[in-house]
Amino acid sequence: MLSPSNSLACPHGHRSTDLAVAQRSGTWMGSVTLPCTYMPSDGFTQQTLIWSMERDDSTSTIFRRDYSGDHVLLSQFRNRVSVPKHIPGDASLLIENLEISDSGHYTCQVIWRTKNNRVITREVTTTVKVVKGKSSSKPIIRAGELGLTVPAGARTSLTCVASGSPPISYRWFRGTPGQKALLLSRQAELVWDSLQPSDTGKYYCEVENRAGAGAVQQSDAVELTVTGESLSPTHDMSYSYLTCTNREQGTWPVDQSLPQGPHSHSSPPLG
Questions:
Q1: Which domains does the chain have, with CATH numbers?
Q2: pLDDT per residue over 19-69, tens digit each?
Q3: If residue 21 lies in a helix (H) or strand (E), which one and from where to where?
Q4: How far apart are CA 166 and CA 189, in angstroms?
Q5: Distance of alpha carbon 166 from alpha carbon 187, whole angstroms
Q6: What strands, in cross-sheet order, belong to the sheet with 32-34?
Q7: 257 phi and psi, to 5 degrees?
Q8: Whole-number Å distance between alpha carbons of 56 and 130
Q9: The overall pTM is greater than 0.90
Q10: Which of 24, 26, 83, 94 is the most buried (most CB within 10 A)?
């Protein structure tokens, strides 16, 4: 029989099918794992795994694993669902980039065949509720270890910190909110490898996420002061083609209008 934790018992006993129900919640555009596990047992071979979804009195098969491989049968779940391949006894379903319409009842059905060709079926059901999520909060700016007054030639950074449901988008500007400002970066962290006096100025960031329906939150501006003389006499604010690295999405070119100086790196939001 099945346990409340959505574990399929070793396939033995006189009943062909048992049912247990669990609850899972997820945030829009987030991810959720629906548990379905069992202890592998000698004499029983998994033949088929089926994940189905019931919503509005209609049941559809999402995922099927059999001798021919893995198959995602509903187009709305393609490239969003997966089941571990190399963990015996783990048939849990991972759903990514959750949509509100993903709310419903999900059933994991496992079919085994015994040595004497007897077919045994077990299943577990999980109820999923997808909620809109939390819009991003007003961000705050954290300065690097040296603070906001930094000697020329030093390395420093400014980090934009905000809470809210992921994914959160970041933008860094040089200037003051509400006035004309220069876009510097689309990452959470702004980094200078070697500060120059010309980097002195005001900086602020803004954030938004999908849960906020496009509402932009701006930080207060902070003033960065670079003291001493430049250690690189040839340095200027010439415009060049920079490359920024996002740890999650790889590398891509940044707008050619970015001044050479600060670089940007991604960092996870709080909360």
A1: 7-131 (2.60.40.10), 140-265 (2.60.40.10)
A2: 446 889 888 888 999 999 998 888 888 999 999 999 888 999 999 999 999
A3: strand 21-27
A4: 16
A5: 14
A6: 32-34, 93-95, 81-82
A7: -85, 5
A8: 15
A9: no
A10: 26
